[in-house]
């Protein structure tokens, strides 16, 4: 059953379904191509989110505005109780409306309810607005191990308290 997350505005955060597959691809392709180059790992996860993310225990959220997908983020399962926050994107025309914050909070809430004790992410220091958001969500920088993404130059983690 699809979960809906309450938000303080006209933005609705909903669980991914295959209807949103093209939007998931397009939203991410847009920002990745703007700043970087699409890597093999991007193509794999964006082309088959059901198989690459959801069927492996992960989750994807979509932000809708008047029913139109305007943002997304994914949680990739990476071991017992650990998820990677990834593929967060907001349509340029909707940036500055706190959609990234809403998606991040909903993703953290989902991970906590799924029994996670940690959520981490890898990013790039060029994406300062995103890094500021992650810090506001409680993520802290930790040493960066080898990553599947060449563009990654920072890792951040958030330790979670159990769901109440």
From TrEMBL:
Keywords, sorted A to Z: Transferase
Pfam families: Acetyltransf_1
Domain N-acetyltransferase: 11-161
GO molecular function, one term: N-acetyltransferase activity
Domain of life: Bacteria
This protein's name: Acetyltransferase (GNAT) family protein
Signal peptide positions (record): none
